[in-house]
Design brief:
The structure is a single chain. The protein is α/β, with parallel strands linked by helices. The protein has two domains: 55 residues, 2-Layer Sandwich (Signal recognition particle alu RNA binding heterodimer, srp9/1); 72 residues, 2,3-Dihydroxybiphenyl 1,2-Dioxygenase, domain 1 (Roll), CATH 3.10.180. The chain contains two helices and eight strands. The strands form two sheets. The protein has a four-stranded mixed beta sheet, covered by helices on one side. Strands 5-8-7-6 form a four-stranded mixed beta sheet, covered by helices on one side. The two termini are 25 Å apart.
Amino acid sequence: MDIRFQVVAFDAAELAPESAFWAAVLGGTVDVDDDWHMVMDADGAPRIGVQLAPDHVPPDWPDGSPPQQVHIDLWVDDFDAAHDEVMALGARLLQRADDLEAEEGWQVYADPAGHPFCLCWHRGSPRS
């Protein structure tokens, strides 16, 4: 099987804030359609779809109702800068890391539509 692109699709009651958030995080752009926005990365490849779901209810992370159904892990080199950037873009912190100075770890955030995602780091040598 040849897969041309891998795209994660999120439901959202409001397409513009959700797609703009992810486009800014990925340094990309948004291709707009009536009930679907495709978020392209900086190289123009499709990465995240945002589908209109007028009755969308954000997941209640970590174990509420409705539960989390999918999330994205973003591995970053500069965690502090990434944290500041996603917060300025409208993210909400859901769970602080136990130790921000640890060699590896993550923090959990919600995007504007309430979908959880993680900023992750690994300060040691790259994994093979």
